[in-house]
Design a protein that fits this description.
The complex is a heterodimer.
Chain A: E1 3-7, E2 11-12, E3 18-25, E4 34-40, E5 47-52, E6 58-60, E7 68-73, E8 78-83, E9 92-100, E10 103-107, E11 111-115
Chain B: E1 9-12, E2 18-23, E3 36-40, E4 47-50, E5 65-70, E6 73-78, E7 87-95, E8 100-103, E9 107-111
Parallel strand pairs in B: 1-9
Antiparallel strand pairs in B: 2-6, 3-4, 3-7, 5-6, 7-8, 7-9
The chains are: A mainly beta, B mainly beta.
Protein backbone atom coordinates (compact mmCIF):
# COMPACT_ATOMS: atom_id res chain seq x y z
CA UNK A 1 0.00 0.00 0.00
CA UNK A 2 1.58 3.24 -1.16
CA UNK A 3 1.79 5.91 1.52
CA UNK A 4 2.77 9.57 1.23
CA UNK A 5 4.09 11.89 3.92
CA UNK A 6 4.70 15.63 3.64
CA UNK A 7 7.44 17.40 5.57
CA UNK A 8 8.84 20.90 5.79
CA UNK A 9 8.70 24.16 7.73
CA UNK A 10 5.31 25.13 9.12
CA UNK A 11 6.10 28.85 9.09
CA UNK A 12 7.46 30.92 6.21
CA UNK A 13 8.06 34.67 6.13
CA UNK A 14 6.31 36.85 3.54
CA UNK A 15 8.31 37.15 0.30
CA UNK A 16 10.19 34.01 1.30
CA UNK A 17 10.22 30.56 -0.29
CA UNK A 18 8.03 27.64 0.77
CA UNK A 19 9.73 24.27 0.43
CA UNK A 20 8.06 20.93 1.10
CA UNK A 21 9.01 17.32 0.48
CA UNK A 22 6.77 14.29 0.00
CA UNK A 23 8.23 10.91 0.90
CA UNK A 24 6.70 7.94 -0.90
CA UNK A 25 6.75 4.54 0.79
CA UNK A 26 5.34 1.14 -0.11
CA UNK A 27 5.93 1.68 -3.82
CA UNK A 28 8.30 3.20 -6.36
CA UNK A 29 8.11 6.81 -7.42
CA UNK A 30 9.23 5.55 -10.83
CA UNK A 31 5.90 3.79 -11.37
CA UNK A 32 3.51 4.92 -14.10
CA UNK A 33 1.96 7.68 -12.04
CA UNK A 34 2.15 11.41 -11.82
CA UNK A 35 2.89 12.84 -8.38
CA UNK A 36 1.00 15.95 -7.37
CA UNK A 37 0.68 18.81 -4.93
CA UNK A 38 -2.73 20.15 -3.87
CA UNK A 39 -3.40 22.87 -1.31
CA UNK A 40 -6.34 23.99 0.79
CA UNK A 41 -6.47 27.41 2.49
CA UNK A 42 -8.11 27.32 5.92
CA UNK A 43 -11.87 26.92 5.56
CA UNK A 44 -11.69 26.88 1.76
CA UNK A 45 -11.63 24.42 -1.13
CA UNK A 46 -8.94 22.38 -2.85
CA UNK A 47 -6.56 23.83 -5.44
CA UNK A 48 -4.32 21.78 -7.74
CA UNK A 49 -0.77 23.19 -7.74
CA UNK A 50 1.02 20.92 -10.15
CA UNK A 51 2.52 17.49 -10.78
CA UNK A 52 5.60 15.64 -11.91
CA UNK A 53 6.37 12.34 -13.66
CA UNK A 54 9.44 10.25 -12.86
CA UNK A 55 11.01 11.38 -16.14
CA UNK A 56 11.00 14.91 -14.78
CA UNK A 57 8.11 16.14 -16.90
CA UNK A 58 5.98 18.67 -15.06
CA UNK A 59 2.62 20.41 -15.33
CA UNK A 60 1.66 23.47 -13.29
CA UNK A 61 -1.48 25.44 -12.50
CA UNK A 62 -1.21 28.55 -14.71
CA UNK A 63 -2.17 30.77 -11.76
CA UNK A 64 0.95 29.64 -9.86
CA UNK A 65 3.28 28.66 -12.68
CA UNK A 66 5.60 31.66 -12.38
CA UNK A 67 6.34 30.84 -8.72
CA UNK A 68 6.24 27.02 -8.59
CA UNK A 69 8.86 24.36 -9.13
CA UNK A 70 8.23 20.65 -8.54
CA UNK A 71 11.21 18.30 -8.59
CA UNK A 72 11.79 14.60 -8.05
CA UNK A 73 14.53 12.58 -6.36
CA UNK A 74 14.24 8.98 -7.47
CA UNK A 75 17.16 7.87 -5.29
CA UNK A 76 15.23 8.96 -2.19
CA UNK A 77 11.79 8.04 -3.54
CA UNK A 78 10.49 11.52 -2.92
CA UNK A 79 9.36 14.66 -4.69
CA UNK A 80 9.38 18.30 -3.65
CA UNK A 81 7.53 21.58 -3.98
CA UNK A 82 9.09 25.02 -4.07
CA UNK A 83 6.90 28.13 -4.05
CA UNK A 84 8.61 31.53 -4.18
CA UNK A 85 7.54 35.04 -3.20
CA UNK A 86 4.90 33.79 -0.79
CA UNK A 87 2.21 35.98 0.75
CA UNK A 88 -0.50 35.39 3.33
CA UNK A 89 -2.67 34.07 0.51
CA UNK A 90 -0.36 31.05 0.29
CA UNK A 91 -1.22 29.99 3.85
CA UNK A 92 -2.81 26.57 3.46
CA UNK A 93 -2.67 22.88 4.20
CA UNK A 94 -0.46 21.39 1.51
CA UNK A 95 -1.13 17.82 0.40
CA UNK A 96 0.94 15.57 -1.79
CA UNK A 97 -1.03 12.99 -3.75
CA UNK A 98 -0.64 10.27 -6.34
CA UNK A 99 -2.45 10.78 -9.62
CA UNK A 100 -3.77 7.47 -10.90
CA UNK A 101 -4.80 8.07 -14.52
CA UNK A 102 -6.82 11.27 -13.86
CA UNK A 103 -7.86 10.88 -10.22
CA UNK A 104 -6.02 11.22 -6.91
CA UNK A 105 -6.06 7.83 -5.23
CA UNK A 106 -3.46 8.27 -2.47
CA UNK A 107 -3.00 11.37 -0.32
CA UNK A 108 -0.59 12.39 2.38
CA UNK A 109 -2.08 13.60 5.69
CA UNK A 110 -1.25 17.19 4.78
CA UNK A 111 0.91 19.83 6.42
CA UNK A 112 -0.13 23.34 7.42
CA UNK A 113 2.12 26.10 6.16
CA UNK A 114 1.54 29.57 7.57
CA UNK A 115 2.98 32.66 5.91
CA UNK A 116 3.61 35.26 8.59
CA UNK A 117 6.37 37.48 9.88
CA UNK B 1 -9.85 29.33 -8.31
CA UNK B 2 -12.41 26.52 -8.75
CA UNK B 3 -13.96 26.14 -12.18
CA UNK B 4 -16.41 23.46 -11.06
CA UNK B 5 -19.40 24.80 -9.12
CA UNK B 6 -21.09 22.91 -6.29
CA UNK B 7 -23.83 23.95 -3.85
CA UNK B 8 -22.28 25.15 -0.56
CA UNK B 9 -24.44 22.85 1.52
CA UNK B 10 -26.87 19.96 1.29
CA UNK B 11 -28.73 18.36 4.17
CA UNK B 12 -30.96 15.37 4.72
CA UNK B 13 -32.44 13.16 7.38
CA UNK B 14 -30.99 9.74 8.17
CA UNK B 15 -32.06 7.22 5.55
CA UNK B 16 -32.84 9.83 2.92
CA UNK B 17 -31.31 10.20 -0.52
CA UNK B 18 -29.40 13.36 -1.36
CA UNK B 19 -27.59 14.53 -4.46
CA UNK B 20 -24.71 16.96 -4.90
CA UNK B 21 -24.32 18.69 -8.24
CA UNK B 22 -21.08 19.69 -9.93
CA UNK B 23 -21.38 22.13 -12.82
CA UNK B 24 -18.51 22.66 -15.23
CA UNK B 25 -18.00 23.94 -18.76
CA UNK B 26 -17.00 22.98 -22.28
CA UNK B 27 -13.32 22.76 -21.31
CA UNK B 28 -13.81 20.13 -18.61
CA UNK B 29 -16.95 18.04 -17.99
CA UNK B 30 -18.57 19.23 -21.23
CA UNK B 31 -15.50 18.14 -23.16
CA UNK B 32 -16.11 14.58 -22.07
CA UNK B 33 -13.64 14.35 -19.20
CA UNK B 34 -14.67 12.09 -16.35
CA UNK B 35 -15.64 13.40 -12.92
CA UNK B 36 -14.34 12.01 -9.65
CA UNK B 37 -15.57 12.54 -6.12
CA UNK B 38 -13.85 12.88 -2.74
CA UNK B 39 -15.05 12.90 0.85
CA UNK B 40 -13.19 15.03 3.39
CA UNK B 41 -13.82 14.58 7.09
CA UNK B 42 -12.78 17.47 9.37
CA UNK B 43 -9.03 17.72 9.79
CA UNK B 44 -8.25 14.90 7.39
CA UNK B 45 -7.08 14.50 3.80
CA UNK B 46 -9.63 13.96 1.02
CA UNK B 47 -10.59 10.35 0.40
CA UNK B 48 -11.43 9.03 -3.06
CA UNK B 49 -15.08 8.01 -3.34
CA UNK B 50 -15.81 7.68 -7.07
CA UNK B 51 -13.32 7.16 -9.91
CA UNK B 52 -13.00 5.97 -13.47
CA UNK B 53 -15.17 6.30 -16.54
CA UNK B 54 -17.75 3.94 -15.04
CA UNK B 55 -17.98 5.77 -11.71
CA UNK B 56 -16.40 2.94 -9.79
CA UNK B 57 -15.87 2.86 -6.04
CA UNK B 58 -12.59 1.97 -4.32
CA UNK B 59 -12.63 -1.02 -2.02
CA UNK B 60 -14.36 -0.14 1.23
CA UNK B 61 -16.61 2.60 -0.14
CA UNK B 62 -20.26 1.60 0.33
CA UNK B 63 -22.51 1.22 -2.71
CA UNK B 64 -24.70 3.93 -1.16
CA UNK B 65 -22.43 6.33 -3.06
CA UNK B 66 -22.87 6.65 -6.81
CA UNK B 67 -21.85 9.08 -9.52
CA UNK B 68 -23.35 10.19 -12.80
CA UNK B 69 -22.63 12.72 -15.53
CA UNK B 70 -24.64 14.50 -18.20
CA UNK B 71 -23.58 17.35 -20.46
CA UNK B 72 -21.54 19.86 -18.51
CA UNK B 73 -22.65 18.59 -15.10
CA UNK B 74 -22.16 15.64 -12.79
CA UNK B 75 -23.83 14.44 -9.61
CA UNK B 76 -22.98 12.43 -6.54
CA UNK B 77 -25.87 10.58 -4.94
CA UNK B 78 -25.87 9.26 -1.40
CA UNK B 79 -28.68 6.89 -0.54
CA UNK B 80 -29.59 5.72 2.94
CA UNK B 81 -27.89 8.78 4.45
CA UNK B 82 -26.01 8.03 7.67
CA UNK B 83 -24.54 10.23 10.40
CA UNK B 84 -21.04 9.18 9.35
CA UNK B 85 -21.65 10.76 5.93
CA UNK B 86 -21.40 14.24 7.43
CA UNK B 87 -18.40 15.69 5.64
CA UNK B 88 -17.28 17.97 2.83
CA UNK B 89 -17.51 16.56 -0.69
CA UNK B 90 -15.52 17.68 -3.72
CA UNK B 91 -15.80 16.86 -7.40
CA UNK B 92 -12.72 16.86 -9.65
CA UNK B 93 -12.07 16.67 -13.36
CA UNK B 94 -9.51 17.58 -15.98
CA UNK B 95 -9.60 20.95 -17.68
CA UNK B 96 -8.12 21.31 -21.15
CA UNK B 97 -7.75 25.08 -20.83
CA UNK B 98 -5.69 24.74 -17.63
CA UNK B 99 -4.05 21.52 -18.81
CA UNK B 100 -4.52 20.12 -15.36
CA UNK B 101 -6.89 19.04 -12.64
CA UNK B 102 -9.70 21.20 -11.37
CA UNK B 103 -11.74 20.79 -8.21
CA UNK B 104 -15.25 21.79 -7.32
CA UNK B 105 -16.03 24.48 -4.78
CA UNK B 106 -17.03 21.85 -2.23
CA UNK B 107 -20.31 20.90 -0.55
CA UNK B 108 -20.89 20.43 3.16
CA UNK B 109 -23.32 17.59 3.87
CA UNK B 110 -25.27 17.78 7.11
CA UNK B 111 -27.28 14.89 8.49
CA UNK B 112 -30.27 16.31 10.33
Amino acid sequence: QVQLQESGPGLVKPSGTLSLTCAVSGGSISSSNWWSWVRQPPGKGLEWIGEIYHTGSTSYNPSLKSRVTISIDKSKNQFSLRLTSVTAADTAVYYCARLQHSWFDRWGPGTLVTVSS
Amino acid sequence: QSVLTQPPSVSGAPGQRITISCTGSSSNIGAGYDVYWYQQLPGTAPKLLIYGSNSDRPSGVPDRFSGSKSGTSASLAITGLQAEDEADYYCQSYDSFLSGSVFGTGTKVTVL
